Amino acid sequence: MRSIYAPARRRAGFGLRAWAAGAVIALGMVVQTGPALAASYVDAALGEIKPADKVVIASPQPVQLLFEFETKGALNGRATKLLKDQVVAAVKASGLFSDVSDTPTANGAVLEIIINDSPSKDEMDEAYGKGFVTGATFFIAGNTIRENYLCTINYVAGPTATKITRTAADGVYFQMGLINSPPANAVKIGSLHDAVFAMTRLIIINPLNALAADPGFQLAMSTAPASTAAPGQAMAATPLALPPTAVPVAATAPAPAPSPAPAVPPAANAPSAPAPAAPTSQPAPANP
Amino acid sequence: MRARGLIIAALAAPAMALQACAMTALPPPQATLDNIQTLRADGVAPISVGAFIPGPGAPTQMDRSVAVRAGIQPAPEGSFARYLGDTIAAQLKSVGKLDPNSTLVVSGMITDTHLDSGLTTNTARAALAARFTLVRGGKVVFEKALAVDTTWDSEFVGAVAIPDAVNHYTDLFAKLAAKLFADPDFVAAARG
What we know:
heterodimer; A: 288 residues; 10-stranded mixed sheet; 10 strands; disordered N terminus; B: 192 residues; alpha+beta; two-stranded antiparallel sheet; 6 strands; elongated
């Protein structure tokens, strides 16, 4: 038996609807007695980037990284702090930048990543209702809550460069109750915070790769002065992987028992190619 | 095993409710791309951040901590007024415009602060106002009161509503800094 959240993670509130349901039943977020009582999944729509699709930059440049996790559009400082290391590691592991820092770089390039969790009033009410039903039936009736996340990545190559933007959406499922079935097209993850960590990496690497394919990004990298940081330095960063407890789940399969099965991301029933990240702006013109 | 878990969970419920009283420290403020681009476009000279203090009344009463229902959020570094100064410093630092030795000094006094989690109204609200002063070589070159506020759908459950309110309240500090940097009179006074 173990807590599904460490205290600091519980207070971070990066799973607002799950937290709402858990608060109503005052149970699900506190104790995890087995996978039937509480289980978490990551939507498999955003998978890993296939090597053939991965953008490679010949001469990576340094970048200043800004990251915010927002809840209902407002900065959630605790969640930001909790996820910051994962975000930095994901950006470094992309190999698109020679160095990633939180201070200004000589070239003036800035990469801003914002992950927003903004459930509507109706979605929150639905979460409360589901939590109430599961709690009122002493965890017999199961429920699944989907937490939706939107990631926006903005990049400017320099002080006067045009902003390039890409977005991606992803979701985390949190289940409570004995009578339940796994969500379709999702990867089972050990705990809610592990699921959010895994989602965080996937929701960043996909639009980041799409951003790197933008002609404006490519031009900025090809015309920028030589970086002072050693090329390839970012590649030394340890890439994040789904936690060892991650298990691919078939859409119709029953919830599997806990297993130390190795990570097999993405799910077997996931699309063969990652879902394309949506551009929200026209490709940037040549950066001055 | 599951029955044991349920019993423990039932016992944990009151403890969970009490946990809302103790809120962990807020992380230090950070820059945003919008503010970076605004400051770059402004062309302001390097600035030093001076004293930020709470004004009389609510700003002083709420300077060390804010209370939301049963939750109490301590101010970072013990003062929300100082947090405003630190927020401005973080934004300036992100564009290399923070210079502790500069003779151009920005300071401020919080003149109004408000946080209501909307328990009875369904709409929560937070507000923040400050009077900013910019001094160049000992001479006041800018002085103005600026204010920001926000509203959002309130939640009945405190475990959700309390951190939600704190997030929206602390987010106002960056918004107020952004309003200062976008103020044309400030920009004109702060240019090198």
